Every structure is written in structure tokens, then in C-alpha cells.
Amino acid sequence: QNKYETLKVLNNNMIQTTSLRYLIRNGDMFRLDENLEPLEKTIELEAGDYVIKPFNLRWGKGIFFIQVSENIDITNCHEIQDSLNIYKNLLIEERLSNHIEINKLCSSSLNTLRIITVQLKSGEIDVIFACIRFSSTNKKIDNWSSGGFAANININTGIAYSAIKKNKNDLGSINNITEGFKVPFFDDAKKIAIKAHKLFKDMRSIGWDIAVTSQGPIIIEGNDDWDVILPQKLLQKGIKKFLCKI
């Protein structure tokens, strides 16, 4: 999957996505316009709080954060240059902030929803699974694969009710999650996931990463090869037969 091309399709179809500001492709950095098309080449990164990530990697690999107090020349930024030496192509996007309720789970990471949509035999798109992920420490990345937590969400009520940590098998109470944590804007998050999937009807199933901010849900990315282990651990059952029947 190509994170840039996916976000461009969503953005140009009026679906709220993370704000991409720059694209670095084959060593050249471009500012992006409102349609996420490259403008002129530049080496100057404007002041701001950014997330920088490779185009195509999964599980939070290669992601880092940079806060720039004044405009800088990227050729003098060791973090960016080191990343370019490894990955070549990078996206630079504005860093998002959690909704105040979502922030209660963990304030150091952007705590995202994973919503899985499938195309039914009828052609309709439906949500079959949802969870929320948050860091287990003071890490800035929430990925379950990086050792964080993930909690089930009832897809009808939007209430998170149990959580599990990477490499652990027992569901349990994490940050009062078993008491019933109501996810803000959950119905809206489901709606934009379904709307987004309709733009990719050649894909049977997509795992959407969605941030919940004070302004509502914002799509971070879509994954056509989403991790099946996480929903199976949270649901405490296999889902292959279920998916095949849809």
C-alpha cells in the first residue's frame, strides 16, 4: 500500500484525513497543495509540530516526531537525513492531538481506532470489528505491535470494554477500560470508514487507522493487509471462517 496515494484519494473525495504538508520523494522535498499535489521543490521545513513516516511501512516502523520552532533547512536536519538514507521516500504531516476523553487512556501517544470494513456479497460495506490502541508507556506511538494496549469496542454501542497487551493472552482492566469507556464520535468514525472503503471497491477488506480529535474522526491510513492476530486475540476466537462467509 502507498500511504500518500491513499490519502490523496480520500482527501480529494472530501474525507477528513491527516494533514499532509510535505512529500520527500527520491531525495527531493515538495510542498503539497490542498489537493495533496506536489508544488515546487523546497529544502525549507516551516515551523511546526510534525510526524514523519515512510511511504509503505507497517506497525509504526520508521516513524519519528520533530518539533520545529523556526524554519529549517532539511539538509542540516540529521534526523530527516538519517531517515532518508534508509527509506528514501517520506511523508511529513502535522501532528494531531487526541480528544480530551481519548487522552485519558494515554496522553503521550495519538490513540487510534482500528476499524475493519468488509465488502459484503451484496456489494454493501459493513464494519465487522473495532478496537482502540494506546501506548503502554510514555511512547509517542500507539501501535499494539510495538508493545502497546488494544481494547475491544462494541461496534453497536461504541463502548470499549476490555483490553490486552502485546504478547499477553488475558483480557483485563487497563485504565478503567472494563468499566465501559465510551469512544467519542464513534458513529462518525464508522461512517467515514464505510465511505472511504467505497472508494476502493476492488478491496474486499480494509483496516482503517482513525484518530479521534476534538473536531471529530480523522483517517490516518488504510491497510489492505491488516493484522488478523489483533482482532482474534481481542475477540478470543478465530475470524477466518467468519470472513469467508460474508
Describe the model:
A hairpin with a 5-residue loop joins strand 11 and strand 12 (159-165). This protein is an alpha+beta fold and 246 residues long. It is globular, with a radius of gyration of 18 Å. It has helices at 3-11, 78-87, 186-197, 229-235, 240-245; strands at 20-25, 28-32, 38-42, 44-45, 48-54, 64-68, 72-73, 90-94, 112-119, 125-134, 149-153, 159-165, 181-182, 205-213, 216-223. It starts with a helix and ends with a helix. The protein has five helices and 15 strands. The model has no long low-confidence stretch (mean pLDDT 87). The chain has a seven-stranded antiparallel β-sheet with strand order 13-12-11-10-9-14-15, sandwiched between helices. Strands 3-2-1-8-5-6 form a six-stranded antiparallel β-sheet. The protein has a two-stranded antiparallel sheet with strand order 4-7.
Outline the fold blueprint.
Elements: H1 3-11, E1 20-25, E2 28-32, E3 38-42, E4 44-45, E5 48-54, E6 64-68, E7 72-73, H2 78-87, E8 90-94, E9 112-119, E10 125-134, E11 149-153, E12 159-165, E13 181-182, H3 186-197, E14 205-213, E15 216-223, H4 229-235, H5 240-245
